[in-house]
User: Fold this.
Amino acid sequence: MDALAKKHGNGDFRGFWRDTSKMNIRPGLPVSVGGASDPKYIANIFKSHFCIKSQLGPTLEVHNADMNRMAVGISFLSEDIHRAIRQMARGKSPGHDGLSIEHLQHAGPHIYKILAVFYSLCVGHSYLPDDLMKTLVVPVVKNKTGNLADENNYRPISLATIMAKVFDGLLNPRHLTFVESTSTQH
Assistant:
């Protein structure tokens, strides 16, 4: 405690708060969730709890997308990629691949051209790689003072890959001209 008082007295507020936060005891992970204590069983509980079934039924796998595609005529320029990356929020959690927006920002000027070709080919061939579409779902506690062993006290957060977020940033401005939303959708 004397070290904290000394830092505070000397005006070292950054060091004071860093050392203070180290002293705070944070609650650990719950021993069990939904009656399960094994991490794999807990993961399966969350998997089934957060699973959403499509009302449209099962998707059909298309083996030859070129035969079934419509001519969409969408291509992307390196300027589009640069703008999408520049507009993205920094410091967000990465997806399953571990890449963040900062990786793309510091990848050099050629990344914009490479990604423009990649995304244009994806749209042109009506194909999105599985790893691009994969998300990591993380359970987050709704009420920290509530029952941590109850799976209903968690909400899912989906962490998409940065490549999917950039693609989304490219498509959003384009589809807004075709989609009409109402005030009840916000």
